[in-house]
Amino acid sequence: MHEYRQDDGAFLTELDLVVKVDRDSLHRWLFEIRRPLTTDSVDWQGITNSYLIRSLLFEFDSPYVALLRHGRLDRVVNRLDLALRVARRAMG
Questions:
Q1: Dmax of the chain from CA atoms?
Q2: Which has the closest alpha carbon to 46: 80, 21, 20, 72?
Q3: How far apart (Å, rounded) are the C-alpha atoms in residues 70 and 43?
Q4: Which residues contact 66 (CB under 8 A, 6 or more apart)?
Q5: Phi and psi for 49 in degrees, rounded to 5?
Q6: CA angle 34, 35, 37 (to 5 degrees)
Q7: What is the pLDDT of residue 82?
Q8: Which of 40, 30, 36, 37 has its CA nearest to residue 65?
């Protein structure tokens, strides 16, 4: 977990920075930075296997893919980070 220093020198963790964002604000912010809203996701059971890894690496174009459990966000996969970890493991 990352910590962030405030202007007064105090530290905050990621949990301290949680802000709920409504749909309209998200769309406006993404439009302002010329980024599309991606909704790529995979339903999973919480167990990583080779089929899931291949799917994440080859079936999606967005840099991040959401993993859902029963329709709720469980985690987000950074596809570039995943590809680097797979390549490092393959190279031994």
A1: 48
A2: 72
A3: 7
A4: 39, 40, 41, 42, 73, 75, 76, 77
A5: -140, 175
A6: 140
A7: 96
A8: 40
Amino acid 4: pLDDT: 76
Yes or no: say if 77 and 55 are a contact pair by the CB < 8 Å rule: no
* Whether the model pTM is above 0.70: no
pLDDT in tens, 51-60: 999 999 999 9
Residue 53, beta-bridge partner list? none
pLDDT at 18: 76
Q: Which two tokens stand for residue 15?
A: 């949990």
- The pLDDT of residue 85: 95
| Phi, psi at 2, each rounded to 5° | -90, 150
